[in-house]
């Protein structure tokens, strides 16, 4: 047992040949390289990814980077884990192997062949979607075989025609939505108004799956381009906000619609020139009505979108007019995460800066106690700064009993009045 490793229990030690020679940890997916040495798949892949071209143990050249699964050793490790489970050793599950290159190439060839029967092409695309969903390794294998170009060709084959309901196009879009795209690939979509228009049209398709897949690709494209002009061009596409808000407002039973909708809305709201279109499309009502239903990361995006929309007059007015806005934002402070608190405080600052009625609503909802706690907390400096500005704004509206009790929070040492 190497000195750097602690045994799991005083009564068990890991057999040395079960340890990866690189990480000195128990191998979960042992693979053998061309030199005959065995390593854990993750560590040897990382070794090669860093530019190393030799075997870590023998220093012999790795003339072939193929990794052969060592099934015998993996079964021995699994049996050892089961035999020592009383010492706290958990059984290592059998790893899923990446899809074979030859199979992936055959499926892509079938999917892209114009002479192949429709059923064969559709079946190939569905199998590719299943493989891509299974694992990151499968997605890497698929992407390495020119899949993105092939999928683009099928997805946009209907651009400019009246047939926007092609099953092949929609299935290809479903596969494409599972991949990240390089900036050149995002530019390929963003720079062509017909392609953008096609994706926007699909946001109103009768199938919610097609709508969500289209929204996913739109979000990936917007997030993947650095050109402000192209981002603005996409966000200016007719009815794009209506389509995204419609997905965001879909019944809660379809969780993916909620997650995809807020990611796409946030990406589009980063373009300040067209935020008013989000307000007109009903984004304010959708955000407030769903704010309590988001998961943590999605709540942060939703609150960031709220703060962005509060920076424009129409957005600020729409949020102020919604009866639940202020109470929800106050409730969120110090509850979900530091970022969520920062965004909620920023939105409240914008709302209270434009309306005395909103100030009174915030005070009635208990915002003063939340803000006084916030400036004393370990939250972000930006969140504290927003809280300080909001406290200063509300100072003239503080109830007398709150002023009397504020000394308990040492507010005078934190808030620069």
TrEMBL record:
Record-annotated U-box domain positions: 13-87
Keywords: Transferase, Ubl conjugation pathway
Enzyme Commission number(s): 2.3.2.27
Group of enzyme by EC: transferase
Reactions listed under catalytic activity: S-ubiquitinyl-[E2 ubiquitin-conjugating enzyme]-L-cysteine + [acceptor protein]-L-lysine = [E2 ubiquitin-conjugating enzyme]-L-cysteine + N(6)-ubiquitinyl-[acceptor protein]-L-lysine
CDD domains hit by this protein: RING-Ubox_PUB (cd16664)
A GO BP annotation: protein ubiquitination
Family annotation (Gene3D superfamilies): Leucine-rich Repeat Variant, Zinc/RING finger domain, C3HC4 (zinc finger)
Organism superkingdom: Eukaryota
Spans through the membrane: none
Molecular functions (GO terms): ubiquitin protein ligase activity
The keyword Transferase appears for this protein: yes
Pathway of action: Protein modification; protein ubiquitination
Keyword Transferase: yes
Function: Functions as an E3 ubiquitin ligase.
Record-given protein name: U-box domain-containing protein
